[in-house]
Amino acid sequence: MYRDDAVLIVGAGPVGLTLANDLARRGVPYKIVDSKAGPTEDSKGLAINISSQYGLQLAGLGRSIGREGQSISRLNLHWQGKRYSSINFSWLPFDIQSLITQPQSVTENELLEQLQLAGKGAVAWGEEVVHIEEQENSVLATLKRLDGETYTESYKYLVGCDGKRSLTREHIQPDFSGVDYDMFFVLGDYELSLPYDNNEVQYYIYPDTFFILIPIGQDLWRIVVKYDGELPESKVSSSEISSILQTYLNPEIVLAEPKWISRAPFYNRVASSIQSNRVFIAGDAAHLFSPIGGTGMNTGIQDALNLGWKLAFVHHQMAPESCLNSYNEERQPAIKQAADLSDLSTQLITRTITEHSIIDQLAPEQGNRKIQSRILPYLHSGLAQKIQLANSSDEHDAEPDIGKLSPRVFALLDEGKIDYLQKNSYWCFINLELLHGHEEHLNHFLFELEEDMHIGRVQLVPYCFKSAVQSKSNALVSFPHIEIEKMSCSDDELSLVELVRPDGLTQLLSNQLDAKQVRHLVFGSELFNHPSAVQENDYEVLY
Ligand SMILES: Cc1cc2nc3c(=O)[nH]c(=O)nc-3n(C[C@H](O)[C@H](O)[C@H](O)COP(=O)(O)OP(=O)(O)OC[C@H]3O[C@@H](n4cnc5c(N)ncnc54)[C@H](O)[C@@H]3O)c2cc1C
Q1: Does some domain include residue 209?
Q2: In the chain, how many domains are there?
Q3: For ligand 1, atom 26: residue with the closest CA
């Protein structure tokens, strides 16, 4: 159904579908279109990293995405046939300690299924956006159906999740130059039995090539092989994969026909701007990464989750429209950071740089336990990414957890685990919507804290406005109001105050209960000050 206050999502790949799910659950009207006739059957991007798994939970999708996927707990690096290093996700102190791999077509189908369950609007397949025009208060989009018929509609905002050749990016006209590596990769999904654990990925690096073996299900493996030179135009052949495995792994290996095979280039590009007033780009439309490290799809999922809650807050008049500018301010540098890391890993693994100091950091020998056990799993899980928040101060940025996914939220999502709270007592300001679907965990969590640890100072305060919390019809907070008791406690008893954004990022961490600071962040900042809609006393903060 058409509504001119709706968001038009262009493209139903993994990024557009993540955004549609997020908006559906936050009660924002949207329409999602895709020029293809139906869902993809391509295997393409496999890995759903740990921060995406948490992000998808925060978007209300629970653990439904990747539920049938292959759990990957370790990445092994072999140099000239010998295991050199290994990244073990089971070192991470979280409940989720593995990546998930599955064909992208499966991930997209799961997202489609969840969208259907949310009951707020399925994908309009076979509809291509052919022209975009921004007006002062709206965006006009011209759409073309498969039968050639065109029509124009007006939307409040337009988000281009329209992939590599994005028309929306052409509208924004950012600089999109970058690096084209002089190599390409051949990749295919094969049913075969290999003598490896099917929850471990193997990277094999040789002076003149590399290949990767990634389990994606029962006896199903993705094999990726790197070749030098330009992407050939000829049809891809399975022998491009089998010949390498026979040379370097085992001459006996004979591959049956692959379930899916393709070639793809290596590139690294980041758009210099990902927004123009009412139009945004996310996912491959905004960035193209080398496939090393599986950054592409995951960075796109983070883009969608950064934008979703802001569109919802603006739609529900809980934030001014200017808060949408923080999308470009926050995500563009974060994407650049991910691109630089992906470029470094690519150069390393393809041996275009050989400086030992860098190699030792990214792929330390077995002896370097600290980097291996603590730093690398964080880097490769996505949890290490820290973004510069649009409205934070230098002092806040110096604090390592600000701008990162909050471990306290993980603690709640991880079925009430309280590991993170053992040393400190927290006042945790969390948007109630984060806890939607986790009510039982929350009760359990509070009970354990009080009973076992004799801490009576944990308090959850809604990081949203009282009116929204109380209104049952408001889809933003479909979770019934939590009884929040005012607990008395003096400032020096309290070791930490935390304010967590709806996308799970820590916005404020303070070792004293500074009510003024919290008030500034909640009401006074650009993000949360909306004079016409919200008065300070509409908000329920308990001190
Ligand atoms: C061969 C191959 C292998 C890959 N392997 C990996 C990997 O191992 N790991 C990884 O992380 N990533 C990998 N990727 C990248 C990954 O597939 C992408 O990062 C991911 O698909 C990006 O999702 P997206 O939603 O941004 O864009 P897409 O998946 O490209 O979706 C864009 C959608 O927009 C639609 N569209 C485009 N223009 C319009 C328009 N004008 N109107 C309406 N609809 C439009 C398209 O039909 C498409 O469905 C691989 C990609 C390829 C091609």
Answers
A1: no
A2: 2
A3: 283
Indicate which CATH number applies to the domain containing 505.
3.40.30
Q: Which of 333, 334, 340, 332 is nearest to 281 (CA)?
A: 332
421 and 340 within one domain: no
Whether ligand 1 lies within 6 angstroms of the CB of 16 is answered as yes
Q: What is the overall mean pLDDT for the chain?
A: 76
CA of 286 to the centre of ligand 1 (A): 11
Same domain, 394 and 324: no
Residue whose tokens read 């189908």: 109
CA dist list (Å): 301 to 238, 321, 412, 460: 31, 22, 21, 27
Residues 394 and 340 in one domain: no
What domain range is 127 assigned to? Answer: 7-67+102-172+268-351
Model confidence at 157, in pLDDT bands (50, 70, 90)? very high
**Better pLDDT: 430 or 481:** 430
Task: Tell me: do 130 and 43 sit in the same domain.
Answer: yes
Going across the sheet that includes 124-125, the strands are: 124-125, 30-34, 7-10, 157-160, 279-281, 275-276
361 Cα: distance to centroid of ligand 1 (angstroms): 31
- Each residue of 294-331: pLDDT tens digit? 788 999 999 999 999 889 878 877 677 888 998 999 99
Establish whether residue 11 lines the binding site of ligand 1, counting it when its CB lies within 6 angstroms of any ligand atom: yes
Question: For 366-405, where are the alpha helices, taking DSSP H only?
Answer: 369-370, 376-381, 394-398
How many other CB atoms are found less than 10 A from the CB of residue 156?
A: 21
Residue 86 covered by a domain: no
Whether residues 447 and 508 fall in one domain: yes
For residue 18, the SS3 value is helix
Task: Answer whether 303 contacts ligand 1 (Cβ < 6 A).
Answer: no
Which tens digit of pLDDT belongs to each residue from 175-229?
998 888 888 999 999 988 888 889 999 999 887 888 999 999 888 999 999 999 9
Is the minimum distance from the CB of 144 to ligand 1 under 6 angstroms? no
Distance between Cα 173 and ligand 1 center (Å): 20
Q: Does one domain contain both 326 and 428?
A: no
**pLDDT at residue 409 greater than cutoff 80:** no
* pLDDT over 70 percentage in the chain: 70
Domain-located, residue 61: yes
The pLDDT, as a whole number, for residue 180 is 87
The confidence score (pLDDT) of residue 367 equals 53
10 lines ligand 1 (CB under 6 A): yes
